[in-house]
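ok, trying the design again with the full structure, not the truncated one.
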């Protein structure tokens, strides 16, 4: 989907006028955001919308914190798609599996350390737990995506050829 289509669909949930009112913007501007715009033609009907601007900020900084912040505001979490490195799939599978288990152990250790001294988890301890949890979620998502892409699947022999 294009950004203007996403905005149009989102605006349709409450209405463009209601969205403009909530954002304290003109109806015309919100309507323009919800229209396709030609990048080459500044006079085109659509206007550069906030989603395009956030994408531009991310592309300029290459900092996933920008996207993760937005996901966090939507009660979610950003997990980038994994880069599949060539090599021995069994070695990658074993190493990735061990890292998932290790990160899960680190999360449990952080939780245990947080409650063992006084039975409570303070805000600093909660931040440590959050960081461990986000590392684990990210690694686990990378693992699942790699599985879905067949990265750990067996190579099937080609007809009349040897296994690859």
């Amino acid at each position: 989907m294009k950004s203007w289509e996403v905005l149009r669909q989102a605006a349709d949930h409450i209405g463009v006028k209601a969205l403009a009112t909530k954002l304290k913007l003109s109806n015309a501007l919100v309507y323009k955001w919800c229209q396709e715009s030609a990048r080459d033609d500044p006079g085109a009907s659509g206007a550069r919308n906030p989603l395009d601007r956030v994408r531009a900020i991310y592309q300029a900084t290459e900092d996933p914190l920008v996207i993760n912040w937005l996901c966090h505001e939507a009660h979610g979490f950003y997990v980038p798609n994994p880069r599949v490195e060539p090599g021995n799939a069994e070695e990658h599978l074993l190493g990735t599996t061990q890292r998932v288990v290790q990160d899960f152990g680190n999360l449990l250790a952080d939780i245990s350390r947080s409650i063992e001294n006084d039975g409570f988890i303070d805000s600093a301890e909660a931040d440590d737990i959050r960081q461990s949890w986000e590392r684990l979620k990210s690694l686990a998502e990378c693992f699942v995506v790699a599985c879905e892409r067949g990265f750990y699947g067996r190579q099937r022999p080609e007809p009349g050829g040897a296994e690859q």
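Keeping the full-length input from now on. The chain has a mean pLDDT of 83.
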